[in-house]
Amino acid sequence: MTDSASSPGRVFLVGPMGAGKSTIGRLLARRMGLDFLDSDREIEVRSGVDIPTIFDFEGEAGFRQRERAMIDELTQRDGIVLATGGGAVLDPENREHLSTRGFTVYLATTVDEQLRRTRNDQRRPLLQAGDRRATLERLQRERDPLYRAAAALVIDTDGRRSAVTADRLLQRIQTHED
Question: What secondary structure does DSSP assign to 69-102, as a single string?
């Protein structure tokens, strides 16, 4: 397999929950004429259960094992925009695949924006117990350096409509290729 880091045929989105990876990813894929995939959704389809159920039965370690296999598979596909789960970058193998097999973008957002965007979401296992703000702040401290290490580009999504962010991202990808 050749290194396709500058190829527009594989765009990978990383970032915290609530950054807009799925929404922006769908829009970007449409604009680029690529397929959109969401690694969490692919895990749910293949396992036949949702992510919270996987966490309940297998714990986070079991989920991360499934996620590692899915990221390995999906990052080898051409013609995709892939939205990854917020914790995908925790695994060094995932970071390696994301940074070497396509053009990886970190969709950054603040904890305040994450709280706003996830306030009614009951499907995120890591936010179901305890202080949501404290959890998001801890995750941000732990994961921000990993997102940055995997990404070729960082885009701030705070206070921006998803369509505007997708357009801006497309311009930046095209500029990067020139």
Answer: HHHHHHTT-SSEEEEPPTTGGGSHHHHHHHHHHS
CATH number of the domain at 109, please.
3.40.50.300
Does residue 5 lie in a domain region? no
- Token pair of 64 as six digits: 């991360």
1, part of any domain: no
Distance of CA 108 to the CA centre of its chain: 10
Answer yes or no: are the C-beta atoms of 38 and 25 closer than 8 Å.
yes
Using one digit for the tens of pLDDT, what is the confidence trace for 5-34?
A: 444 689 999 999 889 999 999 999 999 999
Residue ranges making up the domain that contains 18: 10-177
The number of distinct structural domains making up the chain is: 1
Instruction: State the sign of the Cα–Cα–Cα–Cα dihedral 24, 33, 151, 62.
Output: positive
In a domain, 44, yes or no: yes
pTM for the model stands at 0.89
- Whether 4 is covered by a domain: the verdict is no
Report how far apart, in Å, the C-alpha atoms of 123 and of each of 55, 101, 131, 138, 148 are.
11, 29, 16, 19, 26
pLDDT grade for 3, boundaries at 50, 70 and 90: very low
